[in-house]
Every structure is written in C-alpha cells, then in structure tokens.
C-alpha cells in the first residue's frame, strides 16, 4: 500500500489539503484520529491532548493494518509528528510508529502561528497562546525532519496555502522531494 503521511499541528490546514489531494489522486483520505477511533477507545480528549500516546499509536497501526489487509492501494493519512499529552507536554510520536506506518512520503504542512491560533479559536472555540503554537510548530518540524532522515523517507515542507495540484505533482515526482528540510 502506498501511504502518504501529511502531518502538521492542529489548525495547520492539513485536513483541507488532504481532502483536496484525495479527490485529485482518487484515493481515500483518513485522519489518524478517525482510524484511532475506529480501532478502539481513542485516548484523545476534547482539548486535543492525549492521555495515552502509546495506546493511541497502537490503535492507529491496527486500523491501518486493516486497510492494508483489505487491499487498499493508496491512502492519504493526516496526522501529527508530535502530540500534546494530558500534562501539556509536546511528545514526539515514536520513530518506530512511522517505521510501522511505512509511508512512501512525508509531508509537513507549515502555517503561520497567528493563523493557527485564529483557526483553533474559530473551529474549537479554544484559545491557545501564540508562544505555545510557535513552540509546537518548531517541535513538529524538527521531529518530521528527524523521522525523514532516520528512516530515509522523503519529506516535503508545504505552506498552508499549497494546493492539492502542487502537492500531487511533488508526490509523483520523487526528484522534487528531498530528505529532511533545511
């Protein structure tokens, strides 16, 4: 199965981009959260924090294996390189999880922190500090780069304004994708 993993912090625009990409590539799009909920009791609580990061990742991998076993050829998966635990700490998703996901490409959707704060306020009716969002975005990018380098999986850094057409052309042209982001 060809898996395109599109990551970014909450509110970065990854789900909108993935929906458009799914239509362009005629491939199913799933959010990691959706697959986790299908696999069992999600450990994510209402405020987007995760009680049990490891359990969530186990549920994700199980649900993804079900898709593989069903013969799904291509999947666009949107999720995170880091999650916020119930204490408010930013936790990197273990590299072993990405190894098990076995993505063909990694994408990081990078948005201006001010835009993310605005989107989260409008969408979730919740205020996040600009400082926290900036810190989370830096951690997300750093961990995406680490995963890319460690597993030698192509990583593409996109702005939140990127189009599905632009992403699709990058994904089907490996020469345009590089390992790690400078």
TrEMBL record:
<keyword id="KW-0808">Transferase</keyword>
<dbReference type="Pfam" id="PF13207">
    <property type="entry name" value="AAA_17"/>
</dbReference>
<keyword id="KW-0418">Kinase</keyword>
<protein>
    <submittedName>
        <fullName>Adenylate kinase</fullName>
        <ecNumber>2.7.4.3</ecNumber>
    </submittedName>
</protein>
<dbReference type="GO" id="GO:0004017">
    <property type="term" value="F:AMP kinase activity"/>
</dbReference>
<dbReference type="InterPro" id="IPR027417">
    <property type="entry name" value="P-loop_NTPase"/>
</dbReference>
């Amino acid at each position: 199965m060809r898996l395109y993993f599109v990551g970014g912090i909450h509110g970065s625009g990854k789900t909108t981009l993935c929906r458009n990409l799914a239509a362009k590539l005629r491939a199913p799009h799933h959010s990691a959260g959706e697959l986790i909920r299908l696999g069992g009791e999600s450990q994510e609580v209402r405020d987007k924090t995760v009680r049990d990061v490891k359990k969530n990742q186990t549920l994700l991998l199980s649900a993804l294996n079900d898709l593989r076993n069903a013969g799904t050829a291509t999947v666009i998966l949107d999720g995170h390189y880091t999650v916020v635990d119930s204490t408010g700490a930013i936790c990197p998703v273990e590299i072993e999880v990405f190894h098990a996901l076995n993505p063909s490409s990694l994408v990081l959707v990078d948005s201006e922190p001010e835009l993310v704060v605005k989107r989260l306020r409008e969408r979730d009716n919740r205020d996040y500090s600009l400082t926290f969002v900036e810190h989370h975005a830096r951690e997300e990018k750093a961990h995406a780069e680490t995963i890319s380098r460690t597993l030698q999986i192509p990583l593409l850094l996109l702005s939140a304004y990127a189009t599905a057409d632009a992403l699709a052309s990058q994904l089907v042209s490996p020469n345009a994708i590089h390992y790690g982001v400078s």
